[in-house]
Design a protein that fits this description.
The chain is of the alpha+beta class. It folds into 2 domains: about 80 residues, 3-Layer(aba) Sandwich (Glutaredoxin); about 180 residues, Glutathione S-transferase Yfyf (Class Pi), Chain A, domain 2 (Up-down Bundle). It contains 12 helices and 4 strands; from the N terminus they run βαβαββαααααααααα. It has a 4-stranded mixed sheet with strand order 2-1-3-4, covered by helices on one side. α1 crosses α9, α5 packs across α7 and α5 crosses α8. It binds glutathione. Glutathione (GSH) binds next to α1 and α3.
Length: about 260
């Protein structure tokens, strides 16, 4: 039996839900409310001491870290494979799978906080609750980043690097997609699965202009959205409770991002 501790718009949880949908695996979900700090409750910290979603529990055994969960699903459930067989192709695919762990995920968190999450967290917590939340975060570097984003948002010095890293990844994607339809391989693979949520997040933050001059990325994103797994794993989990759609709130962060890109 598979149980996924997840969150509706968590990018890492989206990765795992896409893989589960692509492989047509039945699973039960436990929604961990990040806004209410449920990931920092002692019960959840017993499942993942890092206090992060997603966690996949397979027959009672927890598996943490989304990249490791993706690989585990392939090992444990080889049907509808999402990895190429040929070793060099598999290595090329893993380069894409690795981007989030090589800084893209932190950059995504930074940009999301600067655009909207900081405001959402501030409006749901008073000063004392904020301090308590930050003090409970097991990763102190993450806590320091969050504190600065809560205090000064877009003015935090690392926001610029976060924007530029997203731009670099989009440029790499565009180059790769010149020769093939999918990122990691000739077929849809974990390379695509790993990157989809980050492009979705930029889209929901109102930043799709970041790939307006990269039509191959736009076409890839359309292909991705046409797959049934997109509806099951992403669209179905939109929620007003904790959303990342700035356009719906009439907030436009593009001019700020555009000015960083123009000055690079
Ligand atoms: N490297 C981890 C990152 C997991 C992660 O950062 N999860 C976020 C949601 S996408 C989370 O739980 N955030 C809680 C927090 O910000 O305190 C993975 O790939 O699973």
């Amino acid at each position: 039996m598979l149980i996924l501790y997840h969150h509706n718009i968590s990018v890492c949880a989206q990765k795992v839900r896409i893989a589960l949908a692509e492989k047509d695996l039945p699973w039960e979900g436990v929604h961990v409310d990040l806004m209410q700090g449920e990931h920092l409750n002692p019960e959840f910290l017993k499942i993942n001491p890092r206090g992060l979603v997603p966690v996949l529990v397979h027959d009672g055994d927890p598996i943490c870290e989304s990249t490791i969960i993706l690989e585990y699903l392939e090992d444990a459930f080889p049907q509808a494979p999402l990895r190429p067989v040929e070793p060099k192709a598999r290595a090329r695919m893993r380069i894409w799978e690795k981007w989030p762990d090589d800084g893209l995920h932190t950059a995504c968190g930074t940009l999301s906080y600067a655009c909207i999450f900081a405001e959402q967290v501030r409006s749901n917590h008073d000063r004392a609750e904020l301090e308590e939340r930050l003090s409970k975060l097991p990763d102190k570097a993450r806590a320091a980043r969050q504190r600065m984003l809560l205090e000064i948002g877009f003015e935090a010095p690392f926001v610029r690097d976060a924007i530029l890293l997203h731009d670099k990844v989009l440029a790499e994607m565009d180059r790769q997609l010149a020769g093939q339809q999918w990122l990691g391989s000739t077929d849809f693979s974990l390379g695509d699965v790993a990157l989809i949520p980050y492009v979705v997040r930029l889209d929901r933050l109102g930043l799709s202009k970041m790939w307006a001059h990269r039509p191959r990325v736009g076409s890839w994103y359309e292909r991705v959205q046409g797959r049934p797994s997109f509806a099951t794993a992403i669209t179905a989990y939109k929620s007003d409770a904790y959303n990342d759609e700035l356009a719906a709130r009439g907030v436009d962060v593009w001019p700020k991002v555009e000015s960083v890109l123009a000055s690079a």
